[in-house]
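Feature request, filed as a ticket because there's no other form

It would be nice if the structure record came with a short human-readable summary line next to the tokens. Right now we just get the raw output. Example of a typical job, pasted below so the devs can see what we mean:
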Amino acid sequence: MNVKISRSLGAIAVLYFTANFHAQNTTTDTIQKEQKIEEVVMIGYGTQKKSNVTGAISSLKASDLEDIPAGRPEQVLQGRAAGVSVISNSGQPGSAATVRVRGITSFGAGSNDPLWVVDGIVVDNIAWLNQADIEGMEILKDGASAAIYGVSAARGVILITTKKGAKGKLNLSYNGFFGVGSAAKKLDLLDATQYANIINEAISNDNMYSSNPNPLTFANPNSFGRGTDWQDVIFNSAQRSSHDFSISGGSDKSTFYTSFGLYEQQGIVMRDISNYKRLNARINSTHKVLNWLTIGQTLAYTHVKAQGINENGEFGGPLSSAINLDPITPVTVTNGIANQLFPSDYNNPFIVRDGFGNPYGISHFVNKEMSNPLAFQQTQLGRNRYSDDFIANVFAEAKFLNHFTFKSSINGKLSYWGNQGFTPKFYLSPSYKNDTFNSLFRETQKRFDWNTENTLNYQNKFGDHNLSVLLGQGYYEFNIASGQNTTYTNLPVNSWEDASFNFDIAPENRTGNAWDGKETHKTSYFARVVYDYRNKYLFTGTMRRDGSSKFGRNNHWGNFPAMSLGWNLSNENFWRKNNIVNSVKLRGGYGVLGNDGIDDFQFASFLVPGSNYSFGNNNINIGYAPSTLENPDLKWERTSQLNFAVDLKLLQNFDLTVDVYRKKSTDILRRVNIPGYVGVTNNPWRNIGDMNNDGLEVSLGYKKNWDDFTISANGNFGYLKNEITRLEDGKDFENFASFQSMGAVSRLQIGAAYGSFFGYQNAGIFQTQAEIDAYKNANGGLIQPNAKPGDFKRTDVNGDGKITEDDYVNLGNSVPKYTFGFTLNMNYKNFDFMIFAQGQAGNKIFQGLRRLDIQDANYQTAILDRWTGAGTSNTVARVTRDDPNQNYTRMSDYYLQKGDYLRLKLVQIGYTLPKNISETIGASKVRFYVTGENLVTFTKYTGYDPEIAGGDTFGIDRAYYPQSRTFLFGANVQF
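Raw output as currently delivered:
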């Protein structure tokens, strides 16, 4: 098969394919028999034949996941399901991914993360889950399929089932890998000579228009050579390994699955303070106690210990420092040279030194939080965070009267987590130091969530009629939590290895706090009817009623209905069988979902201390005042979703699915600003916004056999248009994400997409003074009176004759409009090959890598294309410290770049030993493989990594921890 892939990042030209070639001799009869096996998918509280599904559900099976060496289980979704956007929050070990199902659902009520349900347990995240334990994942994308989860389902629902045992012989398996990663890219930064010349030029440009010129900083710039490459200082090779063992088996009465896992990863940025370790254990079992009664349980434990640095922040940390530090400062200096340079700094008793006693270099050109990364690392040693998670499910299932099944379950998650660290006395620079006292800190927290659910299912067939009816009830408690922290100061030691809470220090050097969580309760009733007539006419109807303690007394309860219809057109008698269009299913649905992602009791006003007052003889009395305004009408966000789709089987080997949807969020929850004279400390919550998400999803599959080859393919492409349609009364926009002293760089604006970038539109650069003088308003005044030749020319959008924030325009969307990918798996005899690529397009990235408030911070080499005289540049303004025209200190399209990329995410080559060899060691399968990750990225973005997430403020690169390029060697052995 010839497959052509456009090199253009135009999203419609690229589809996501999964192709499997299996080396096996398979007869045509066998293939036809396999094709008749009905695929079953999870639909929430049950299963359904895929051919009869009427909602928009994407599925991944264990076979789709087992060869992907992801660090966290949500990362395996990337590029594998249409309409599901998965963007890594950073390349730091253990970092989560941002998962969005059919766009952004809310811009106020918490995150837009989907609802995760693992073996029936509703959990807040799946960081604790071992990917090797996953049997399948179903993404409920539309309102009709997700409505069964009601008030928490508006952001999409992802169902995960873990592996279970099967009757038969005992099965033992091992899957593991080891690899080494490194930085895939370095920024092009100025070397020492280039830096010195640019800084001198900036001073010279300011002196041209100053009555009090400043002397040049560097007398002989060319004497510095290349200087220090701070990126070489922070980037290192990083090891990564994973080991998973599982044992499963069972009899006619009982089955079990047990697994153990160990995952370790070092960071490519200063691995001593950027690393991750996870231990997993699981046991799942089912027992047929009686012919009509089955009981079972799932139990999992996960321990995580990690260290991390700032993942995407401009205010300090190794990455931001490496980008901004001047290349003139050395990494370390000898004491003799140090005393000659800046004796007040290098003689400081708390200066950080290397293993040979030499002080680390201190920059006197770049200050504030920017510091020598190696010195900074010494102050962070010993800091770590940990978590222990216990997740359990116990169920009993009874079948009676032939058609009835009753299931009752109790589910829970108990979590312990915390962090600790030691802050020594240190001196990193005159503006970044701790020379007063050291401190040892420890925080511990715990949380328990639990629920119980009971369902009664009736399933029967009446001639050509198939009917399934589900009735259910659930009770849920969240955030049964508490926490405490302790800080000891002025310890008699100054290193983390020696620090301990066992030191007997004075009481005034001990502080502590404790707190309890606010419990949330929810009660639910739900019902579903699934009906089909001769597998032709399909119907699914759902109703859920949720009562939540999160909302005001006038809105404790909400109803969430849904309905979907399907028509297997090709099952009609009039349909003529043909070899082109083999089957056709039309489906459509509508559902109403809720979003309750706010903190507890935001509808209420509590009395809080802090409003002290004087009375009588000027005595100070402790006063209490309301924390906010009460809002008994506060309610959940409402998201309605309409979906139309067609499922086709073409040419016997292709499966094509096309979905078109509109997702409308109303009554979006958000805090509203109120005048200070009201006298409350917190702004109240109200339902004040609306937003639409319109989308198109295309999935393509292919499957065929040729003697020694079997090929299967699956593809997807997603398009999303997001638009805010209503904000708080009387407002056209609200400022959203900000950047340093620049202020807001993105907005929530009616008619624009979520988090769109707004700023000045540059119309080139003033080449001469005559051009500045000619840029006048209607009254003859200069539109940009502070401009000088070499400065940006701003567009006067509103025509008022001056440049203000009223001239800000929409400069682009931070959320990708298109997502796509490509995967190919091949087997030939005992060899297998897989390639996986993914990408996105239609978004902009704000590149905010340079500190605006540090005049002498380093630049990228793009500054070498700056304006230096008439005709030299029309895109990069002159360099200047004072920046009177605010070329670099105000938001404009200068800071935005296209975020389009196509990444070769995974390439894997494997070899399976012949059975006669593997059987000599008692194994049924022995496979070895080599994997390369993030091998190449096609993009025009000039930062480290175009895959920029950052929670719900997409697209701002503040110093993004890049993903590593990694090579892995692994083995899979089954007995």
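Something like this underneath would help us a lot:
The longest strand covers residues 465-489.
The chain is about 5% helix and 45% strand.
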